[in-house]
## 1
Amino acid sequence: MKQENRVKNPLSKSIIIGGSIFTLIFVLAIGSLSYLTFNHRMMQLYTEHITGIMELTLARIDTDDLRKCIETKEPTEGFFELMNYLDQSRTYYNMDTCTIVYPYEENGEYKVMQVVSGLTPAERYGSDRKEIPLPLLGDDLTPYLAPGFPETIYNDFLTRYDIKYSKERNAFGDNYYAAKTIRDENNKPVAVLTTSASLKEIENTVRNYMIVSTAGILGLALLFMFVMIGWLRKRIINPLRLMGEVADDFEKKSHDQKNPDALIMENKSIHTGDEMEALANTLVAMSTNIKTYVEELIQTAITMENMKVEVSRANELAMRDSLTGVKSKAAYDQQRDRLNLDIQAGDAEFGIAMIDINYLKKINDTYGHEKGNIYIKKMCTMICDAFAHSPVFRVGGDEFVAVLIHRDYENREELVQVLKDKMNEQAAKADVDEWLKPTAAIGIGIYDPKIDKDCDTVLKRADEAMYENKKAMKACRKE
């Protein structure tokens, strides 16, 4: 009789084998997915972090002063201010490097010259200066770079306008590298701003995350498997049915559930006092662990999103002129790139108004810069009111650019006249201080697909028209 009832293939054995295979596959699949997702997100955050730093740094650079330092290989006062800023950025943002270099070609060879680097206090003043010497203006960095890298950075220096991201291995280690050409107001390349962050931190973070997450998933999977084996051994059908009801209720409640508090399994009616009840309690505890794990993931996502918001806020500040609040020169550069894309696609229809306000230097010299700032803001308000449906940029101390689109493009001549009439009306008022009477030279360039290949030619025509208007205004005053 015992021989007849002997089970040839015990369910516990099948569960152990099948559960082991499932656990292995599950851990490998979840671990691989977690690795790819987390590593991608870390690189994405690094990219956003580096992009924000690059844009903030570019906004601080005086290209004329920088070009002078490169040509003479002699530092200026502005050079030292830039060096201090890079030192602070390097330390505050925990960057591996923050450097400005000048790539050039000499006798058929591509070389890279050191301009200025951001260093930590220990690196600059001695305690970390062991094998690598302190980089100085004019030093040749070529020996420290990977073969072929000087030629690559030279070609990018001449042709690229966006930020280039890459993973590089050089004498300083493995880095996540970003570079962008610094260009002057005429869009000519001056130097290359490079930043990099060590990939070792990402690798260590991902490794630690994988160890913790894999161990947690493996532990939960093994715990679940062994509890199920104990449950099957008891062969208690009714508690099994009740447990099935509990699991079914939990599945319905947790399906597409976004509230972690709902991820708690209830033990509605299993009070047998034996292993089945213990199993039910264990599953409840597991659901609590899962809830905690989900809460930690949500908190991590919130933290990452906050970091993204901070970088976006810093980027928004860089795109605004601090005095007037209108868009800055950097924002105009982005607008120009978008217009060039429209030109390439054949969808461009726009004009550019160049406005140069008069007498700013005289006001600053006679009444002081505080009065000059008030004058600038008053003129900015009048320009924005006139071109209310177009973006306005402050591209210089006394220069504004309005990209005329839609309604403003169609009514450009009327709007220019409205602006001139408004200035004349204000200037004619007797109760307005002499220094506050508005006057400006205005020139408009209209995009013509037959002659314009990019936005800069339109801006040039607007600039020429503005200077012609300024000459005419001077001639009228002499008469």
## 2
Amino acid sequence: MMELKVYDIKGKETGRTVNLPEEIFGIEPNTHAIYLAVKQYLANQRQGTHKAKERGEVKGSTRKIKRQKGTGTARAGAIRNPLFKGGGRVFGPRPRSYSFKLNKKVKRLARKSALSSMLKDGKIMVIEEFDFETPKTKNFQEVLKSFDLENKKSTFVFVNPNKNVYLSSRNLPNSRIVNSSNLNTYEILNAGKLVLTEPSISEIEANF
């Protein structure tokens, strides 16, 4: 087991500690599994709606624009020839899906590797769970200020985040609120600081 101190939202130690399971937070990171998981996540974000018109789709006549022989230039069949300005594109992009399958065991290993890597680099901290009575960006800014995270990337992990907490953080570009059941490899590594609430640790452990 690995121990971390628990802080309150004002950045002060509570005097308590939590144990992080070594089989999740203390393994040797598998960089290839991380690469595959991040690649899959980014590939799934692509819309794949790109499209270029080919010869049969561009506007233009299909008549033969000049005689076959005797002009001294190359033969040409139609104005839509890809060699002409305004002609169709040869082998242009077509709508497609970039997603690909990744085994559950590989994705699980990637998440464990990412968490272990972040802890090894001192980028994980634990705080008490908190909520706000009203949605105010200023409230969340005060929490960030307590941990010197105002101008740094941070991801806060909750089991079920309070709606007011989520709304309070929504306008802050460097901070994200994530549900522990939806935590993925990309979000773990993309966080400059991964801030876990106490209940989220047992939830993360249960998900593995």
## 3
Amino acid sequence: MFALEITNLVKDFVSPDGGALRVIDVPRLVMQHGEQVALRGASGSGKTTLLQLIAGIIEPSSGSVSLVGQRMSGRPESTRDRLRAEFIGYVFQSFHLLPGLTALENVELPLRLAGRRDRAFAVHLLDRVGMSDRRDFRPRQLSVGQQQRVALARALSNRPALVIADEPTGNLDRRRADEAAALLREMCQENNAALLLVTHDTHIVDLFERSMSLDEVNIASTSEQRVTTSGERL
């Protein structure tokens, strides 16, 4: 059973002229448990849209996304929220830490959303990222690099099958970017979580044994594709 399985995944948006613009068209993509993949692509190429489809934040026009054999797409929003909380850890470029919560409370948040509590594991993760002495600090009291470390710990707190990372080093300098990428990879390996990291940073891509460009998996990214109302390409 795959950690992630994508089949004939399509996402169309309404273009300014009222037609349909195909942004995502992925015939097939699978990831094994514990596998780590870097997906490279230019800004605006559809990387974030693909991650949002995988996470069930938005729904595809057609096709399917499955996590550990559980179909994410085509389910009610409440079901997608539950599956996301159970199976996915998400690392955002802008971190998205809640300003009113401490570092520890931010790390615990995915557990609470999944209806679980495991403060000991949250404390362990903060220690693992070198933030045990900052557990009671709020985001505004932390540096950018420290906020990133808290975000990495949070992504692993629900013991996800899949971690998806959207330009997770984009706000960091070269040294901190390398450190954050290495730490994320190590933590995913320790927890047997698959990792899909999207980036336009070729230096980060080179750290991965398996990498691919969005063009290799997403037919729609090779050119702007307008489609008819029946779904056919023009």
## 4
Amino acid sequence: MFFKKNNTCDNIVKELTKKNRLKRYTFLIIGCFFLAFAFNVFFRPNNLVTGGISGISIIVNKVSGISNSLFITISYILLLLLSYILLGRQTTKYSLIGSILYPLFVYLTKDMAQLIHFDVDNLLLVALFGAIINGLGSGLTFKYGFSTGGSDIIGQIISKYFKISMGNALRILNIIIVVSSGFFIGEKGGVYAWENVMYAAIAIYIITYLTDKVLLGISDSKAFYIITEHETSIKKFLIEELGRGVTVLEARGGYTGDRKKVLMCVIPTKGYFLAKKGIMEIDKEAIILINDVYQAEGIE
């Protein structure tokens, strides 16, 4: 068993990330490409601001003429530095590769809209297809333990310092970005601009649905209930490696009457796969019950 060979949990995440490394990085590359493709082929040419740094880049381009890829690249570099200062080296590490790949793919696919031109006047159709590709890209990225950085870093900072869940922080941020776009895109304050805002809202809903429901689940967090013979090791992994709080519940078997301890831990949805794999690496015989958590107050 993994933990018998290693007396501490310091290397669990490293060991997990080594496994299927080629598969993980392959899907990260595919995910980042999907995100950049959706942005450059569907969203940017049609002025659909769906939030995030990419959405801000569309607004900035309309106002100042600065290219989208240049704005995204500079923003991602600055946010990585900010993440290192405010969130620490460990958290920043998981955003590093995605923060490099996504701006790179945005630059490489910036002219793709001219090669793959959709002669479609129906913005709803454009929003639907762009959202589907974007949602799949986001899901693949998060599923294999990565982040593309950008607005995710902003959400993590807001969550840490203002005690707001990351899901709510990102929702508030994206609402501000999308609504702001209505004042800058198309005919200023005109019907066309606000029509884009409404289609962007539809796209965001579909992106969230695909990312969360199809690939990750339907909630911001997951509640793990763990019955294990390796209580100390798993607690150490959850607390020290994942930075999550753990509650120990006293339980008794309904049939045997044996007393056991149940570990309860709330994990952000994006950390679901890493937490699950880590627990099973420590104790393959562990019993894990996982529920969706729709609201968790007072949990960092």
